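Notebook entry, structure prediction.
Reason for the run: the old model in the group folder had no record of what sequence produced it. Starting over properly, with the input documented here first.
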Amino acid sequence: MKHPFLLPSILLLALCLRASTPSGLGVMPEIINVSAYDPKEKQRAGASYSEHNVSALRENGARALIARAGKGGDLDEKCRNFLSSADRVGMLPGIYYRLQTQVDAAKQADQFVARAQALARSRDWNAPALLLCGDFDAKSRLSDILRFMDRIESRTGVVPVAYLENSAHLKTLLNGADQAAKARLRRMPYWLALYSNTHVSGPRELLNQYGVWSNWTMWQYGGVDWERGRSQPKVYSSGAYRFPRYFGNIDRPLERNVFNGSPASLQTFWQRHGLKLN
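New structure, fully documented this time:
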């Protein structure tokens, strides 16, 4: 389905992309990730959004939106509305599940797959696929990461994306894995989290610290910290990588990412690692 309002926005999108992507990365597609905590509170003048209307994100250049589907056995109540809103304005939809150590990994994978399948049936989608991602926190066990991946693939035929927190435990765990485990991990595209320049000079250094992947696929360069009950944008800005504190003219903090490739390769990637919708 074509979206007529996008046509007069081409110049705006180009300007926003140039403004938000640092010269060290060129112009890479922007992706927003959200959860039930979004939107955060307004912090400045500008455009807003909600789970029912994300057109301002698209107008500022975002090509995709990844919503949290669940966490440790609990489902995220805003997920469906965020995805429907994204699909209406031509953004690619995706979901992630935050794995927790206190719940069996296979059980969490089953809940994630059930949510993905229910979402796929919930509407007539414009997008071709729903990206599937696992969010592995700082305490994750290697066996749980692999079981989560295997369970999703066995039930859907899709190898999910791996989002890893930037933690000493995960670096030691994955770097010390045997070659067979590393080969299995490499089947999942690496979504790196790096929105502070503390102790890491850029995505390549972080990639080397894990000792698994030869390259990264998505980079979460913008995160959000909570200080005294208020959200604070935390955005990577060091050396060649100078991301702005806010996304375009959006009036509040966002969790933001870039895709390591062209818009065309983003479409291919989404279909390869997503549940088919059409």
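Summary: The chain is about 35% helix and 25% strand.
The old model has been moved to the deprecated folder.
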